[in-house]
Amino acid sequence: MAKPKRAGIYVRISKDRKGEELGVQRQEKACRELCERMGWSVLKVYPENDVSASTTSKRGRPAYTEMLRDARDGFIDGIVVHSIDRLTRRISELAGFLEEQQKHGFAFATTEGEDTSTAGGRMILTIKGAVAQQETERMSERINTSLLQRREQGKPHAGGKRQFGFKEGSCFQELDQAETELVREGHRMLMDRNPKTPGDVARFWNSCGSTSPQGGAWTIQSVKRVYRSERTGGIVTYKGQDIGDSVYAAPLTREQWETVQALLDSRATPAPHGSGRRKHLYSGFLRCGNCGSALRVQWATVQGRTFRRTFCHSGQRGKDGRLGCGKVSRKYVWIEQQLNEVIAAALSAREPQRQEAPAEDFRGGIGLLEARIRTLRGRWKDGRMADEDYFDSLAHLREELRTLRARAAASVVRRSRTESDAPAVWADETVENLERRRAIVASVIDHVDVFSVGRGRRKPPETTSIRITPASG
Ligand SMILES: [Zn+2]
């Protein structure tokens, strides 16, 4: 190929590198340097701004068209680009470009060094073009090619682990009736007026002979996973964002699922520091009446009898960082009985709390938002709205919707719980219920000062040997 006398330089920044005007200057500089090295003279620069060379770009590229026309007409006899992906990201277009080059005999070079005068060079170029196209497709989160389109149509991502409630291998499109029944029954148990815990649900499912998707027995954690999964509520997500309802059946409705989330959230108590969970209802509430440091509660065995005692520890710093005086040591059970009576009395005397906004108040707002999303989607599907605007608005509306739904769900849980159910929660003395009972304690009692009653007493302690400071508010 003869040395071109009049080369054209083609530079382009695509939309995905928006704002990088410098990018064009860098491309041009590199191309000019290449021309200088090869002894090509530069006749013209063809700058293309803000246009994508990918398949998703519908707009034409005027500078590219002009450059090809100039090459065909012999106005220029060489073309220099920074790299193939600047020239084009479509294989078909690259093939067309190479054909033109063969036919009209103009020279072509990139700063990355492909030599198109040989078959091998052209092959490399074609492969590079193919790679550039693949990159475009990977990069592209646009609807016409992507997963998001499926999801927007309410079709959940079909991959991932097997999920309880759905038929194996059905890509979450068909329900397993028996499993779905268990999910629904578990939901009823959790939402019952006398509520059961995820632990109860695990025991129930195990007693039915059901196993977790991993094949083992149900545990509190694996049961929670079932109810935490959006799929269980027929909710389609994309990158962790709720983007709509599945077109296929789900074990629970969205409302049921959201109510369970509020329930699980309200139960999630931060793990107490120190070793494991608390085992005693009033530990943490008891203070030494002598020195004010936090009392410990421990099992003790004295003369063959095992009982719980609470004491001021003088040998070890407590959670409050203080060393106790060691002067108070009491039987825990007696204190627990006293305090239980106080809590029960406080609960029965409690005025039924005013209900806050009933769920119906949220329904209106939720319906309104849903309608706005439908309108938006309609406009977008009809091509009356740009992708970016659509997804931007959609994200905002979804976020509002999510907040409103969470509040509606929380209000349902609160109404079913507070007044009527606090005594029921209180009456459930199972270990699983301990943290919820402690929450009730905290609503009645701030702390309890415990005084020494001396050793070896036979008589029961005086009620004045403890002093209760009620919770404020
Ligand atoms: Zn003390």
TrEMBL record:
Domain Recombinase: 163-270
Alphabetical list of SMART domains matching this protein: Resolvase (SM00857)
Pfam family, one: Recombinase
InterPro entries: DNA_bind_recomb_sf (IPR038109), DNA_bind_recombinase_dom (IPR011109), Resolv_N (IPR006119), Resolvase-like_N_sf (IPR036162), SSR_resolvase (IPR050639), Zn_ribbon_recom_dom (IPR025827)
Resolvase/invertase-type recombinase catalytic domain sequence ranges: 6-154
UniProt superkingdom: Bacteria
Protein name in UniProt: DNA-invertase hin
Organism: Streptomyces rimosus subsp. rimosus
UniProt gene name: hin
